[in-house]
Amino acid sequence: MHTIEIVIIAFGLAMDAFTVSLISGTNSNTRGFRPAFRLSFHFGLFQFMMPVIGWYAGIQVVSYIEDFDHWIALILLSYVGIKMIISGLDSAEKFNKNDLSKGKSLVLMSVATSIDALAVGLSLALLKVNIWYPAVIIGVVTGMLSLIGVRIGNRVGVKFGKSMEVIGGVILILIGIKIVFEHLGFIPV
Predict the structure, then answer these.
(1) Are 142 and 58 a contacting pair, CB within 8 Å?
(2) What is the distance between the alpha carbons of residues 161 and 19, in angstroms, rounded to a whole number?
(3) How many CB atoms lie under 10 A from the CB of residue 69?
(4) 10 Å Cβ neighbour count for 63?
(5) Is the torsion defined by CA of 168, 143, 95, 78 positive or negative?
(6) SS3 letters for 20-86?
(7) Is 101 helix (H, G, I), strand (E, B) or coil?
(8) Least packed by Cβ within 10 Å: which of 17, 22, 60, 110?
(9) Per-residue pLDDT of the chain in tens (189 residues, 90 and over written 9)
(10) Domain ranges in the chain?
C-alpha cells in the first residue's frame, strides 16, 4: 500500500473526529489551548490504537480468508463509509452542551470516532500491510485535523463539518472499490 493511499485512508477516518471536534469547538467550554489539545490528542491516540488492535485480530485469520480478502476489505470499508455518510447526513443538534473535552465524554467520543479504524486495521491485516506506519499516519492526521476542527469550531461553527464527514465516507468506499479492482487486475498494483 502506497503512502498516498494511507494518507487518504487517514483523512477518511479522521472525518468523524474532525466533525466531532468542529462541533465541540462551538461549545464555549472547549475554547482555549487545553480543551483543543485534549480532544486532538485523545482522538489521535485512539485512531492510532484501534487499527493496531484490528490488525492483530486480522493477522490471526488471514490464511483462512486470503482468497476473498479483497471483498472483505471492500465490505468493511464500505460499511465504515456508509456509516460516516449516514452520520454526516444526521442532525448536528444531538450533542449536548457540557465540556466535551473532559472525562467520560472525551473517552466515549474517542472510542466512538475510532471504531472505524478498527475495521480498517483488520482490512490492512487481510492485505498483509505492516500496521505501524499506517497507524502512526492515521493517528497524526487525526490529531492534526481534530485540532484544526476545534479551532475552526471556535471561530465559525458547524456550517461545513457534516459535509466533510460525508466526503470522508465516500473516499473510504472508493478506496475499497480500488482494492477490489487491483486484486482483480483492472488496476496495476
Answers:
(1) no
(2) 5
(3) 20
(4) 7
(5) positive
(6) HHHHHHCCHHHCCHHHHHHHHHHHHHHHHHHHHHHHHHHHCCHHHHCCCHHHHHHHHHHHHHHHHHH
(7) coil
(8) 60
(9) 789 999 999 998 898 788 878 877 776 667 788 989 999 999 999 999 999 999 998 878 766 776 787 888 788 778 877 877 887 787 655 544 556 678 777 888 888 788 888 888 988 888 888 999 999 999 999 999 999 998 988 877 545 656 766 776 788 788 889 888 988 888 775
(10) 3-184
The x, y and z cell numbers of residue 27, run together, are: 461549545
Cell (9 digits) for 111: 472510542
Cβ(5)–Cβ(130) below 8 Å: no
pTM: 0.71
Q: Is 168 in contact with 17 (CB distance < 8 Å)?
A: no
DSSP state letter for 1: -
